[in-house]
Write a structure and sequence with these properties.
By secondary structure, the chain is an alpha+beta fold. 31% of the residues lie in helices and 24% in strands.
Length: 254
């Protein structure tokens, strides 16, 4: 979709969506209006990055109205499955349909099999930012040592921590992948008491694999985080990365 058509569709959607200046997200580093969120999701660069992660698979959405609403089903009770190719607002398989309905977050659902191992490095309370990065590096390093892992990527969650994704040579059952991760990460929790696989204390980092099941999901790369207004983005260097690198303005200007 070219920029002219994206802009035209953005104007149509905003015209039907009520007050475009209504603030939907108020975060520490970003405050976003309906218009800004829709413009971001309809931007050609965002579509190109986001749609391949969503297309042809069930998706969980977080929509921001007076209160956040988690949506897994269409009004007809079917799973939400977004397909590439514009069909227009009103079609439940069309990306623009959900952008027009105040969707702030997109979460692809894992399904019964996965080709990645996923770890959500989630710090609680007063865990320092640099300590979170240090533990994220350790998790990534440990997963690189697994014999069937082809590569490991780190993604900022848009919130407090990071996702570590390890690409597998072959798909495996999602439940089996979760149990495998528990064994691998258990070695880290034994070495570093401030890490845990379970319910974290106020100064602990949870190595969370609880969403790794067939109905579970993680926020997509280039999805906005509704709590902060920041974008979940791949991280090239943890040493220099800061949360302010994940504002919409910086992400689209990158």
């Amino acid at each position: 979709m070219d920029e002219f058509l994206a802009g035209f569709l953005s104007e149509l959607i905003k015209a039907a969506a009520g007050d475009p200046d209504e603030v939907l997200v108020e975060g520490e580093h970003a405050k976003l209006t309906k218009s800004q969120i829709q413009d971001y999701y309809l931007h050609p660069k965002t579509r190109k990055r986001l749609l391949p992660q969503l297309s042809g698979r069930p998706v969980m959405l977080v929509q921001q109205h007076a209160e956040p609403v988690v949506r897994r089903k269409t009004p007809e009770g079917k799973e939400i499955v977004i397909e590439e190719g514009a069909k227009g607002p009103g079609d439940p398989s069309d990306y623009m349909n959900w952008v027009s309905q105040h969707t702030v977050e997109f979460h692809p659902v894992h399904g019964e099999n996965v080709d990645h191992l996923y770890v959500d490095v989630d710090p609680k309370g007063n865990v320092p930012w640099d300590k979170t990065k240090e533990i994220t590096k350790l998790v990534a390093h440990r997963l690189r040592q697994e014999p069937d892992v082809k590569g490991v990527r780190t993604i900022y969650s848009g919130g407090r921590g990071f996702y570590v994704k390890a690409q597998l040579e072959e798909e495996m059952g999602t439940n089996k992948a979760r149990e495998r991760l528990k064994r691998v990460l258990g070695e880290i929790t034994k070495e570093i008491p401030m890490t845990t696989l379970g319910v974290p204390g106020p100064s602990q980092v949870r190595l969370d694999v609880s969403t790794l099941h067939d109905k579970g999901s993680l926020r997509a790369e280039y999805s906005i985080n509704r709590r902060t207004g920041l974008v979940s983005i791949p991280v090239k260097s943890l040493d220099v990365f800061q949360k302010t690198d994940a504002t919409i303005k910086k992400v689209l200007g990158d």
